[in-house]
Design brief:
This protein has 804 residues and is mainly beta. Helix content is 5%, strand content 57%. A hairpin with a 2-residue loop joins β23 and β24. The chain starts with a helix and ends with a strand.
Length: 804
């Protein structure tokens, strides 16, 4: 195995060297960086092209571009980007030239920020990639949000192919995949649990983000490790010219972002900048007086979460740049009943850190090397004290995952027809699937835990974006993934291909194929990605998940109206997906007096999945009126030998129809109106169909002699769930949200008041169902009925935002 990896690495280095050496004598290269004027923020996905031709390229994640062309006396290049004024620049082209450009925000923008991620102004019909969606950050900030908290993941839920979880939840379910099948990346670092408040908010603060991209299929070879989607986010670098700040005050949380130069130099060698963004809720402060009043001051309880994003960068000149970024966030719930002597704690959180080094190898080669740390941890604690203030009962439960990664990528630009990317990554995972410690005055101490599991996951890739003719656009690639757990090794090839054929100007036919492997799994009782779910690795008993996806579609640009239309159909198969067996629990704790060790593999079963459907997206990113219309028709089925008697069933998040309408209208420079409407077929659920009374055996506990003779309790109620899993279809989900933003702009600052309404027409959407009884009148027996429970009625909110 070591010899194989060495040979592959040598081949990788030889490929880079050969590409760099292939420069004909009559061709030269123009390269440089494109940044935003006024902040020096690198712009991602700027179109760089020869006017009047289809020859061109786009800037990479760090704003770098490179074009190799035949020599001539002078060369004129055009630079264009959504929301910025286009620029044309002429340079002498008898030798290699360096051309750095600054783009000025256009009139459509109301602020000096980066407002459009990759692929910039490139027409959707001319790109080889498909099943890829990017949303301008500026749009995200104007879309109505629950309690005024702008949320990237909830905006992605409004896109076709992305199914929503339960009411208000940020769960992402892409083309039949579960929440663990989404690769969520923040500045190269993987985020494992991206939820606050049990899923009602995500951990991402939009004020700190520069770009957001969702990939649902046709995955480029540089991405691996997940089956269903990639959500890649990049943080801002920080303003290099002046101090800039923005923030907001809402009903449940406030946030503040500061960015500016660390040195007085505006740009170039020696310049540096920083960004710090923080957010915290004050639910604990608001609820504390109410809790104290209701409990006569005997109970102290609360909940809060916080986020902290930070980034610093240093420019060593045109060839070297250094970036250090990190995210830290926590959710904390606590309760202390003083009179009863009970303390309960529940907390979870993420921490990531990324150190990146950009190096310009030559005019045609750009490299990035990253050291990455990611840590997710979840903990439950419960203590019950007796009157002597000694521990009578103590419970501790923890789980988590910690990563150390090394990643190296190279971008090569040998000619306008080819854009190559090569890379290698290795990650050391440490999983702590479950650890339970129980202390009791009777059993002294019981400890049941799974030893930490150390595994190594790695991969190397090569991909090429190729334009063989004026009609063809091809992105082909190959990834080789490797996973090692003790003596078990998996080596899996992953071919990728996306292609577009231009039928006529602004209209193309597209197709893609991708084979993906996933070596980490999420065990969930609920299927909605709560923090109590467990991350576990592939082992000798649990095989890697694998999917194959094929997609075809058409893409059309309506240039005069600024619209882009995509229609896609897909078919995906999934193998070795896992789920809990019937009755299994994440605690892995049965009888505390037993010394039997329970492995988590004993509680799971492996199966297969299928997903297929069609998606339509009509999108407009700029102008006084912007937004999109999305529709999805899909089917998702699972099959496990030990669930539902081995028959296929619909998972909870299967939705036959899913639609969304998003509109943003600039009434005037001072007033912005936006609204959303969503509709979705009801979830597939397993609900009780009847109930009956049954006896149960209850051990009699004596504090002096321990457990004694069992006693029978005949008052135990049993729910009967029928024979078919998820055979009940909930009522359809639909909702309308509306917001109005009032801006007040001055020379050096801006103030915005936002008034929004969540669930405008007070739709009582189902959250869960349960059996209950209903009176039929005097003298009549009660009737057993199925009750629907809702969470959020109409919810108005107000928030205040500021910039300086």
């Amino acid at each position: 195995m070591k010899h194989l990896l060495l040979c592959i690495h040598l081949f990788f280095l030889c490929t880079v060297a050969s590409v760099l050496a292939q420069t004909p004598a009559n061709r030269f290269t123009v390269s440089g960086y494109v940044r935003e004027k006024g902040s020096q923020e690198a712009l991602i996905g700027v179109n760089v092209y020869l006017p009047g031709t289809s020859t061109g390229t786009t800037t990479n994640t760090y704003g770098f571009y490179s074009l190799t062309l035949p020599a001539r006396d002078s060369l004129t290049l055009a630079f264009s980007f959504v929301g910025y004024e286009s620029v044309q620049q002429t340079v002498s082209f008898r030798r290699n030239a360096e051309l750095n450009i600054q783009l000025t925000p256009g009139r459509l923008l109301s602020e000096v920020t980066v407002t459009a991620p990759r692929p910039g102004e490139e027409k959707v019909s001319e790109s080889a990639r498909m099943s890829t969606i990017d949303i301008p950050i500026n749009q995200i900030k104007k879309i109505p949000a629950f309690l005024g908290e702008k949320d990237v993941l909830k905006v992605l839920q409004l896109m076709p192919g992305v199914q929503k979880g339960s009411e208000g939840n940020t769960g992402i379910y892409v083309r039949g995949g579960g929440p663990d099948q989404n690769l969520v990346i923040l500045d190269d670092a993987e985020v494992y649990n991206a939820n606050h408040l049990f899923g009602f908010f995500s951990v991402f603060n939009g004020d700190a983000l520069k770009s957001v991209e969702l990939i649902k299929g046709g995955f480029p070879a540089r991405y691996g490790g997940r089956l269903s989607s990639v959500i890649e986010m990049n943080m801002k670098e920080g303003n290099k010219e002046k101090l800039h700040g923005e923030g907001g005050i809402g009903l449940i949380a406030s946030r503040l972002t500061l960015e500016g130069p660390l040195t007085k130099k505006k740009s170039g060698a020696g310049s540096s900048s920083f960004l710090v963004s923080a957010r915290r809720t004050y639910l604990d402060f608001v609820a504390r007086p109410i809790i104290k009043q209701q409990t006569d001051g005997q109970t102290v309880a609360g909940y809060y979460f916080y986020d902290l994003n930070a980034k610093a960068n240093y420019d060593f000149g045109p060839k070297n740049k250094l970036y250090l970024s990190g995210y830290f966030g926590q959710d904390r719930f606590y309760a202390d009943e003083k009179e009863e002597g009970i303390k309960i704690g529940l907390n979870w959180g993420n921490a990531t850190a990324t150190l990146r080094w950009n190096h310009l190898i030559s005019e045609k080669a750009f490299s990035n090397t990253s050291l990455i740390f990611s840590n997710y941890k979840f903990q439950i604690s419960s203590d019950e004290l007796n009157f002597q203030n000694e521990d009578a009962f103590s419970l501790r439960y923890t789980s988590g995952i910690r990563d150390f990664s090394l990643k190296h990528d190279v971008d090569l630009y040998p000619s306008p027809q080819h854009s190559l990317r090569l890379g290698i990554q290795a990650t050391m995972h440490r999983f702590t699937p479950s650890a339970v410690v129980l202390k009791n005055t009777d059993i002294n101490q019981f400890k049941q835990e799974i030893d930490a599991i150390d595994v190594v996951e790695s991969g190397l890739y090569a991909e090429d974006t190729w334009k063989p003719t004026d009609r063809w656009r091809i992105n082909g690639g190959f990834r080789l993934s490797h996973f090692q757990h003790k003596a078990v090794n998996y080596i899996r090839p992953e071919p990728r291909l996306s292609a577009a054929f231009v039928l006529k100007p602004s209209l193309s036919l597209k197709g893609s194929y991708a084979l993906m492997n996933q070596y980490v799994h999420l065990l969930s009782n609920t299927g909605i990605g709560l923090p109590t779910d467990l991350w576990v690795p592939t082992t000798d008993r649990i095989k890697p998940q694998q999917s194959e996806q094929v997609a075809i579609g058409i893409a059309k640009d309506f240039e005069k109206k600024g619209l882009a239309l995509t229609v896609e159909g897909y078919y995906k198969t999934m193998n070795n997906i896992i789920n809990y067996r019937e009755g299994a629990s994440f605690l892995l704790l049965n009888d505390p007096t037993s010394a039997e060790t329970v492995r988590w593999e004993d509680n799971v079963t492996s199966g297969r999945g299928w997903s297929y459907g069609a998606e339509v997206l009509l999108q407009k990113k700029v102008g006084r009126f912007s937004g999109w219309i999305g529709y999805t028709l899909s089917w998702t089925q699972w099959q496990f030998p030990e669930l539902n008697f081995g028959r296929k069933f619909f998972p909870r998040y299967d939705r036959r129809h899913d639609a969304s309408i998003v509109g943003i209208y600039e009434l005037s420079p001072r007033i912005t109106v936006s609204g959303t409407w969503v509709y979705g077929t009801g979830q597939a659920l397993t609900v009780p169909t009847s109930e009956y009374q049954a006896p149960r055996h209850v051990p009699i506990y004596n504090p002096y002699y321990g457990f004694g003779t069992p006693n029978q309790d005949f008052g135990h109620q049993i729910n009967d769930y029928g024979t078919q899993k998820n055979s009940f279809r909930a009522e359809a989900y639909h909702r309308m949200d509306l917001s109005v933003q009032v801006h007040k702009k001055k020379k050096h600052h801006e103030r915005t008041w936002e008034f929004s309404v969540y669930n405008l027409y007070n739709r009582r959407n189902p959250f869960f169902y349960d059996l209950g009884t209903k009176s039929q009148g005097e003298g009549q027996p009660t009737k057993t009925v199925l009750y629907r429970y809702s969470v959020f009625p109409i919810v108005p909110s107000i928030s205040y935002m500021f910039k300086f």
